[in-house]
Specification:
By secondary structure, the protein is an all-alpha fold. Among the domains are: 32 residues; 37 residues. Helix content is 71%, strand content 0%. Helix 7 packs antiparallel against helix 8, helix 14 runs antiparallel to helix 15 and helix 18 packs antiparallel against helix 19. This is DUF2157 domain-containing protein.
């Protein structure tokens, strides 16, 4: 057999070769030929005793060489067994029928039994009234007796299928006999009402079913299914009948009575040792138990008053269901887990429902919290079915506690929303806004919070939550923080008290940060919440923000996760800026001083981040917080002189930090821009009308940068590096210098042009050479122009003619000199 092996385990033959594939096809063809040849049989002739066997004569048929069918080379796909394994077609297998059809006899029995029942029903409904009482009685007795005798006969044969059919007809006829006799008032059955009739007949039917099953078992070696079904139907009928016997009791009591009757009948079947009937009886009892449990719960909910529950008896069914569940859990181990859960839930309902009727929200919340705490704590005591049931029953109560705390968190969100909409609206001792918080009684808040803490402590210790056991302390810390925030809002503490409590808890969290992983994030969250709540009062917010910055500063500096350190640094910086600004504003100083203080705090944070924490993860967060302070300080309106001072401070600090810190050289650029803005503001403040006052400093700075760039890059054109600076330094003065060429401005402009020309000649820089030459030529022409205009026209004509004559005579030399000048200028950088 080739079973997916790459090679023969005995001889090592390669089973994936082409030859082996062809051999496989030949073997399949041989199997097919042998199968077809086996269809032709020859009758064997008897050989006389002692006669020699005839010699074997070979057939003259000469077989032709067997040519195996051509094998087409298909792309090889390895089977799931692994790569490289050959895949061969399997020989055809005979098909097996999936299911065995019913025998004809069974089908006939079923049809016959069904036909008899239908015929009996039609006879009773159609022809029954035409017969007298005696005739009806005789017919019922005769037919039932015949079917009973037939059942005994087929059972003793033994015929299993026939017995099932006949006994089912017998029991159906007995049922018709019983209710027909009740209808006619025979043998005293007419005095029974419908419910009592069902109760009596259910018991009788169960007894008959058990008797038939016990008598037939030795003959058939099995338990009749008809008896099992009839027994279950008898228990169901007796249960419904027992529930309707008494008319003047409530719906829940009827369900409990039905459950008791069904349970007793199910217990009475146990001595018979009929396993199938026991299973059916247990299923019936389970269904009636659920029915009675729901009915008792509905009854309790419909009459929740404590007087109705106790004195009125409306809570007794629920108590009985709790006791029944405990008894079932103790007696039947297989259902101990769900029975325990139902019993505990019944006790919880008996406690919560009467409490919720007419009691305050605080009493209800406290009751639920205490129940959740008790059940959660009890649930850690074991792993057996009893404790599993307790834990399952505790889950709905724990969910209710979680929903209550979600409602309290919603109140916290409402208060924060109002504070953000209207900050600084309260005095320092004003209470948190009552409009967003329910009027809770003070005693209930710690009770509900204690229940939450006990649940948070117990849940990680449940066997089902063993994966959370390592995080139990962190979970407890987070829940305690949330509970504290809920408490300060629910109690409507004064603003200062709420902020102080949360900041104190943040300090406690920092003290245990090394032992509790979540303590750092909890401290950050508490500080943020305290800072937000403190925004309700101006005085409280200043102190809270500064205290929060002081609390978070060590968290940003100390070792820990980088994300936490970065967030702490950002929040600490923002709180410091906001706290200082709020404090200065509270002193009622001028806005200018407030802006300067905030600006100073921002610059201080930037300086500390770069000088003291150059390699720390909190460096960038502090820089961002400082930048926020700088932006706020510059955004406060002020006079031109005040704004010039602020820009000067920013520029000086940034330039100094850019020169001092190796990784922040780029600070020089925003610092230089800030200084230029400050200079322009100072010029505007002074009211100067000289255009050079605005452009010359910028030109000097641009020239300095251009000279630096020209020395660094040898291939860069001087027009690109020095052109902007020369334009800012020289061109703005040209119009006024040409308008008044004898003014001091023209003299200074000419001096600057000479310096540019000399630098261009000395350094071979084209841009200053051309700029200096052009401006000097313009100044010379403008200075000569008035004198030339005042001289006689004949002298001017003569001078121009003489110059043209000289140029014409020496034209070739002038062309040569011009080319040399152009080449000289082009050779410049």
């Amino acid at each position: 057999m080739i079973a997916g092996e790459p090679a023969c385990p005995h001889c090592g033959l390669d089973l994936s070769s082409l030859e082996v594939r062809q051999l496989w096809q030949v073997l399949l063809q041989a199997d097919d030929l042998l199968a077809r040849a086996g269809r032709h049989r020859v009758a064997r002739q008897p050989v006389p005793q002692g006669a020699p066997a005839p010699p074997f004569q070979p057939s003259p048929f000469q077989p032709s060489p067997v040519q195996p069918p051509p094998v087409q080379q298909q792309p090889f796909t390895p089977p799931p067994g692994g790569p490289g394994f050959p895949s061969y077609p399997a020989p055809p297998q005979p098909s097996v029928a999936s299911s065995k059809p019913w025998p004809v006899g069974t089908i006939l029995l079923v049809l016959g039994a069904f036909g008899l029942v239908v015929a009996g029903t039609i006879f009773v409904t159609r022809s029954w009234e035409d017969l007298g009482l005696a005739g009806r009685t005789l017919i019922l007795i005769a037919v039932t007796a015949v079917m009973g005798a037939l059942g005994v006969w087929v059972t003793r044969r033994p015929l299993r299928a026939s017995a099932e059919a006949v006994w089912s007809v017998f029991l159906a006829l007995l049922t018709l006999d019983f209710f027909a006799a009740r209808h006619e008032g025979l043998v005293g059955l007419g005095s029974l009402d419908v419910a009592a009739a069902w109760l009596v007949w259910g018991v009788v039917l169960l007894a008959l079913a058990v008797a038939i099953a016990l008598w037939a078992r030795p003959h058939l070696s099995v338990v009749l299914a008809t008896a099992v079904v009839a027994g279950g139907a008898g228990i169901v009928g007796a249960g419904f009948g027992a529930g309707g016997v008494v008319d003047d009791i409530g719906f829940a009591w009827r369900a409990v009575i039905a459950l008791v009757v069904v349970g007793v009948l199910a217990l009475l079947t146990r001595p018979a040792d009929l396993a199938a009937l026991t299973i059916v009886a247990r299923l019936v009892v389970a269904a009636f138990f659920v029915y009675a449990y729901i009915a008792a719960l509905v009854e309790l909910g419909a009459h929740p008053a404590i007087g109705d529950v106790l004195a009125g008896g409306h809570g007794v069914p629920m108590m009985l269901m709790a006791v029944a569940a405990f008894v079932i859990a103790a007696v039947v181990p297989i259902v101990r887990f769900p029975a325990t859960a139902l019993a505990v839930l019944a006790v919880v309902a008996l406690v919560v429902v009467p409490t919720a009727d007419g009691a305050s929200d605080e009493v209800i919340a406290s009751t639920v919290a205490l129940l959740a705490a008790v059940l959660a704590a009890v649930g850690i005591r074991g792993t057996d079915d009893w404790m599993r049931g307790v834990r399952v029953a505790a889950l709905p109560v724990i969910v209710a506690v979680a929903l209550m705390h979600l409602a309290l968190l919603g109140e916290v969100g409402g208060v924060i929303g109002l504070i953000l909409q209207d900050p600084w609206a309260l005095q320092w001792n004003g209470r948190l806004d009552v409009g967003s918080v329910e009027n809770h009684e003070l005693w209930a808040v710690p009770v509900v919070l204690a229940g939450l803490l006990v649940v948070a402590w117990a849940l990680p210790r449940w066997p089902e939550a063993s994966g959370l056991r390592g995080h139990a302390t962190s979970i407890m810390t987070v829940v305690a923080a949330l509970g504290a925030i809920e408490a300060v809002v629910a109690l409507r503490l004064p603003v200062w008290a709420a902020a102080a409590v949360l900041l104190a808890l943040a300090l406690v969290a920092l003290r245990v940060r090394e032992a509790v992983i979540a303590a750092g994030p909890v401290a950050l969250f508490l500080v943020l919440t305290a800072s937000t709540l403190a925004g309700a009062s101006h005085g409280v917010s200043s102190a809270t923000w500064l205290a929060g910055a002081a609390i978070l500063a060590p968290l940003a500096i100390m070792k820990g996760p980088d994300v936490l350190r970065v967030l702490s640094g950002v929040v600490a910086g923002w709180l410091a800026v906001a706290g200082v600004g709020s404090l200065v504003g509270q002193i009622d100083l001028d806005e200018t001083i407030t802006a300067l203080v905030v600006l100073g705090v921002g610059l201080t944070l930037v300086a500390v981040a770069n000088l003291r924490l150059p390699e720390h993860p909190a460096r960038v967060p502090l820089e961002l917080a400082g930048a926020a302070g700088i932006v706020v300080g510059l955004a406060v309106p002020g006079s031109t002189g005040e704004m010039a001072v602020r820009w000067t401070l920013v520029g000086a600090v940034l330039v100094a930090l850019g020169l001092a810190v190796a990784g922040r050289r780029w600070y020089v650029w925003p610092g230089g821009v800030s200084l230029l803005i400050a200079y322009v503001l100072l010029i505007v403040e002074s009211g100067s009308s000289f255009v050079e006052a605005y452009t010359l400093p910028l030109g000097v700075v641009a020239l300095a940068i251009g000279v630096h760039q020209t020395h660094r890059g040898s291939g860069t054109s001087t027009w690109a590096t020095l052109g902007p600076g020369l334009a800012l330094a020289l061109l703005p003065s040209v119009p006024q210098a040409l308008a008044d060429p004898t003014d001091l401005r023209a003299l200074l402009l000419g001096a600057g042009a000479v310096v540019a020309l000399a630098a261009g000649v000395r350094l071979s820089w084209q841009a200053p050479f051309v700029a200096g030459t052009s401006i000097l030529a313009l100044l010379v022409l403008c200075n000569i122009g008035p004198y030339a205009n005042a001289a006689p026209r004949v002298l001017l004509i003569a001078a121009v003619s003489a110059v043209l004559l000289g140029v014409g005579i020496t034209w070739e030399d002038r062309v040569r000199d011009g080319r040399r000048v152009v080449g000289y200028v082009r050779s410049m950088r």
